[in-house]
Structure formats: structure tokens, C-alpha cells
Write a sequence for this structure.
């Protein structure tokens, strides 16, 4: 049984999930959040499903050790992977972003942009199908993450890149899923290019799903003060520059090292060479 | 004492270093090479110096265990970091790409492009200064790596991005250092935009430096057949797709897991939380 006043664990490959954390804090102002940015392995979108699963499992194990009352996968790539292959031995309820995002779609003609792994996984197509809708257009847009992380959302190059990726978007599309937690930072640019298209992202829908669960299970905190503690597996200084550049004000992230003994178990796989270095 | 017939270890954060491996194979057709792409942590350019040093040390430790006769750091970011803080406890001679690249510069008015970490390190400016030259213009160009890895070098968006980054290049510049091993794959595009500028990259200069060392120390192989074995710390399928997209024909890379006990030593750093996950 999880404690009501336990923290909620939130993770992403990097900074993008802060868009989800922000929505979670707005919806649940009294909860305590632990956010892990797996910046050492960022971006997830180009790494392939198996590796993303391993990274996600390591972080979930950390959260489980810290007895969080819920885990929010604030990353579309990890969500896509975990929908196909769930986390193992995790007792806390796990919330991914794809199901609530798809549930919030109102339109009938839906497109999606995301990382190569997210789009390649077909997770959005499948989730939309299960919701009785179809995915009529989808595109992997890998350069949008480095664009955002370089702080170029207001530079003319942002529109050039968006036009490049959206060039063949059918004009019948009425809803575009921003299938990466970085993309809400480009929402203004995309809306300007597509004034008649409804843009849907994961942040508010996911926060609403988590809130509904906590209310329904009577697990809303009673005593803790709302706060968020940020960790990064990468360089804390680099991460803090990034989040400041993007206008987030969560306070400084600290460095976190996750050591995976799971990697050692690969020793018996003949296709894998393993060495422990001194 | 290293064996003449031992392999040469070559590493990069990902696929870019294959441009250096190709030049090494051309210069040293009888040598055996082991190439490690640290794709699990790719790209290095956005990760910060401390982390890049840790990643590089782990790989160098692996090479040391395998008794390579030389280590080639086929990555500008890692080279920049290791010039400032050398690898520890490595007996094999280590070749970075910055020194030979700078030595091959003939012009007097030099510019450089590279990752944020490479440019931010000032390594090229320092190396040029030591060679009696100056670095008159330098720019971090983070989106060029995902551009190459997306296979867009022949797409019009490549020229748009290059024009964006090179917009303020002074017209007095006669030499531009392509300070990232991915950038030779954009050499044609850049040369077309800058027909009067000499483009300098790491591949041939580094291969020549390694060859000169092996000749001078009488360490050229006598018996081994030329070959290259590729490993990736990331997803082998993803890596092999990338190298095939870029036109490399080295054969399939295998998955390699590097476990670092060095990470555990961070346990005593009060700013670092460490957990071993099951």
C-alpha cells in the first residue's frame, strides 16, 4: 500500500518532461514530485526500443526504492515503448502520456509528429484505433528537439524547419498531436503555421489523468507541501542552463547516478560483450 | 610493451567517427581496428565535459583491457575534453583529432564549427594559438548532427541550416575547420556555399598522425590482416541502419555493454545520489 503523502515520480529523457511536470503542479499543487531527467542518455528518440526500456526500468526501480505513490512517464518515446512492453516488478501505478493524450482528441482527422522511435512504434496509431479513430498522417521530426534545446524557438529557422516537416500534411487534418514533450515549446510557431488545426499535447491531459486517479483512490496528499525536486543523470550545470533557457523555474537539478545491475545480466547473451572497468 | 600485431582502438559517441576509421583503414590497410560507438550516450556534444570524460575513460579502460597498441579518439568533443583533462591509467598512446587537424591548417584566417562542448571548450582556439595562428570565428552548430543522422544531407533543408549557421562568417576567413566527425558528410554542401574557403577535417590528418607514430616506433603490424570490428553501446539495429544510410560498408556492429565501477566511486560525493538497481 502506498502512502498518501509519498512523492510522485516523474521522468523524461531530459528537459521536455518539465512541460508535463508544470501541468502536474498546476493540477496538484499540494503534491511532492521527484523529477528525473535521464540526460546522460538523452535523446531517447533515436536510441531504439530495447535501450529505452532498459533506461526506463532503471529509473522506475529508483522510484520504487523511494516508495513513490505513482510514476509518470513524461516522455512520449518511453511511453510508446512501455505500452508495448510494460515495466517489470513495479508496484506503483504507472501513467504514460499517450493514452490520456489520445483521449483528449476531439477531432476526426488526426495527424501526429514525434521522435523516430515514437512514430516508428505505431503507438499513437494503435491508441487512436482503440479509441475508434484513425491516424491519417504521422511524421518523425528529429531536429525539433535540438532546435528547442538550442533556444531557437523564436528564430526564423524554427519556422523553416517546421515548414519542412509539415510540408505534406494533408489539409483535411483537423487535429495534430504534438507527440514529444519538447514540442509544446513550439506550440505558438506551429499554431501560426496551422491556424485551423487543433494542437494536442500530453501535459494537461496527463495531469488530469493522474489527478483523477488520486481523487478516485483517495490518495491525494493530506499533509505535504507542494514541491518538486529535480535530478539529472547528466551534467547538472548543462541541464540547469537548458531549463532556464526554456523559462522553467523549478530550481536547480542535482546530479543522480543510476547504476544498473541489470546490464550485468546480459553477460550470458552471446551477442553481448560485457566488461566491468576499474 | 604493446604488441605490434595488437589492434588499434577507435571510438566516437556514434557514427561520425567512421569518417576517421575509413581514413585510418586507407592509410593503414593491414592494421586491425576495434571501433566503439558510444551510441547509448550519443550525442556527446550536449553532455558537458565531466560526463564526456567519464564516458571516454570507460571506453579507454575497455581498450586497455584488450591491450590495444593505440587509442584514437575519433570525436572532436571527447578530444576537446581530453586535451584539458587527459585519460587516467592508460598505457597505450592516445591520439586525439584536434592537434593533427590544426597542424594541417595552411591558411591564416581560420574559423571553426563544432558541437557546443567542443566550441565552448576553446580547444581549437588554444591549439591554433599554440601553432602560432588565431581562431577568428567559431560557432556551435548542434543541429548538424541530427541533420546528418536523419539522412538529409541532400535535402534542401541542409543548405538552409548551413546558411543559418554560417550567416555571420566573416568573408576574410580562408579556412574552416569542420570540428565534428559528422561534418565531413556535409563537406560538399559546405564547399558549395563557401567555394573559396578551404575545408579542413580530422580524418586524413589524424590517420597520417597515427601512421607516422607507428612507422617511427616500428609498430606497424607484420602479420595481421586488415580488418575492423564494430561495437555500439546502443541499439545495434539502429546503428547499422545509420551507418548504411551514410554509405559506410564496415559490416554489422554488435552490442557492447560497458559497466563502470568508477560511477560507484561517486558515492562519497555529497552532491551525488547513487543507487544500484536490481
Amino acid at each position: 500500500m502506498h502512502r498518501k503523502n509519498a512523492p510522485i515520480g516523474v521522468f523524461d529523457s531530459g528537459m521536455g518532461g518539465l512541460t508535463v511536470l508544470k501541468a502536474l503542479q498546476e493540477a496538484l499543487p499540494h503534491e511532492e514530485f521527484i523529477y528525473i531527467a535521464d540526460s546522460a542518455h538523452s535523446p531517447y528518440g533515436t536510441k531504439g526500443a530495447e535501450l529505452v526500456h532498459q533506461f526506463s526500468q532503471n529509473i522506475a526501480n529508483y522510484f520504487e526504492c523511494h516508495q513513490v505513490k505513482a510514476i509518470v512517464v513524461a516522455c512520449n518515446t518511453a511511453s510508446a515503448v512501455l505500452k508495448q512492453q510494460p515495466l517489470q516488478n513495479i508496484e506503483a501505478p504507472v501513467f504514460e502520456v499517450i493514452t490520456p493524450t489520445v483521449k483528449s482528441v476531439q477531432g476526426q482527422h488526426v495527424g501526429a509528429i514525434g521522435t523516430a522511435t515514437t512514430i516508428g512504434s505505431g503507438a499513437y496509431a494503435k491508441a487512436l484505433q482503440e479509441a475508434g479513430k484513425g491516424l491519417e498522417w504521422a511524421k518523425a521530426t528529429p531536429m525539433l528537439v535540438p532546435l528547442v534545446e538550442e533556444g531557437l524557438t523564436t528564430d526564423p529557422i524554427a519556422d523553416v524547419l517546421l515548414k519542412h516537416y509539415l510540408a505534406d500534411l494533408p489539409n483535411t487534418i483537423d487535429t495534430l498531436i504534438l507527440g514529444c514533450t519538447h514540442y509544446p515549446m513550439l506550440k505558438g510557431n506551429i499554431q501560426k503555421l496551422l491556424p485551423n488545426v487543433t494542437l494536442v499535447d500530453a501535459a494537461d491531459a496527463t495531469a488530469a489523468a493522474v489527478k483523477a486517479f488520486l481523487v478516485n483512490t483517495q490518495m491525494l496528499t493530506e499533509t505535504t507541501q507542494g514541491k518538486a525536486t529535480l535530478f539529472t543523470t547528466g551534467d547538472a550545470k548543462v541541464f540547469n542552463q537548458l531549463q532556464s533557457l526554456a523559462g522553467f523555474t523549478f530550481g536547480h537539478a542535482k546530479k543522480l547516478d543510476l547504476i544498473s545491475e541489470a546490464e550485468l545480466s546480459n553477460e550470458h547473451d552471446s551477442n553481448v560483450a560485457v566488461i566491468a572497468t576499474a
